[in-house]
Amino acid sequence: MRLDARLRFVLYAVFALLFATGGTWLVADRLKAGSDGEIWQEIAANLLMLHGGAAMVILFLFGALTPLHVQRAWRSQRNRLTGLAMVTFNSLLVVTSFGLYYAGSELLRPLLSDIHIGLGLCLPALLLIHITVGRRSS
Question: What is the pTM of this model?
Answer without folding.
Answer: 0.91
